From TrEMBL:
One Pfam family matching this protein: L51_S25_CI-B8
GO CC entries: mitochondrial large ribosomal subunit
Keywords in alphabetical order: Mitochondrion, Ribonucleoprotein, Ribosomal protein
Matching InterPro entries: Ribosomal_mL43, Ribosomal_mL43/mS25/NADH_DH, Thioredoxin-like_sf
Gene name linked to the record: MRPL51
Protein name: Large ribosomal subunit protein mL43
Example GO BP: mitochondrial translation
Length: 148
């Protein structure tokens, strides 16, 4: 009896097995008159923005003039958050670095990590939360306190 392989295709399961880019939209705001928007204007006229848009078709790009304001780039993410970077007086290569920074971000707030490794989990721990007032004799702050 010959052995034959089953022909099946895998189904997508909410991003399992595929990379989903977190950035869904980039907004470019600039001013035509202000000198601080000179780098943004050259960036938008250069082929850098076209090549970036072609390389990342899943990101929607909006370009709009905002008179009398400094140029900004606003990134919108799939979790609903936004990040804004002011790019006044930057050159077009520096602006491309900021665009890539927004593309690679995930939209979460920046969290300060104080030494060591911080591990987060959605599941509750098996042992529960430690409490000094439960579980027999404890030595609290150098004083012998017996809790029964």
């Amino acid at each position: 009896m010959p052995v034959t392989a089953l022909r099946t295709t895998s189904t997508a399961q909410n991003g399992v097995g595929a990379f989903i880019l977190q950035c869904k939209r980039l907004d470019f705001h600039y001013c035509d008159q202000w000198g601080s928007s000179k780098g943004m204007n050259t960036f938008l006229c250069s082929p850098l923005i076209a090549s970036f848009a072609k390389a990342h078709p899943q990101i929607t790009i909006h370009i709009s003039p905002r008179p009398n304001t400094h140029p900004i780039i606003r990134g919108t993410y799939i979790n609903g958050r936004e990040k804004v970077i002011c790019v006044r007086n930057l050159e077009k290569e520096q602006i491309l670095q900021k665009v890539e920074l927004l593309r690679d971000a995930n939209g979460e707030k920046v969290k300060r990590v104080k030494g060591g490794r911080v591990v987060g989990s959605l599941n509750e721990g098996v042992r529960g939360v430690w409490d000094p007032f439960h579980g027999g004799n404890k030595d609290i702050l150098g004083d012998r306190i017996v809790i029964n």
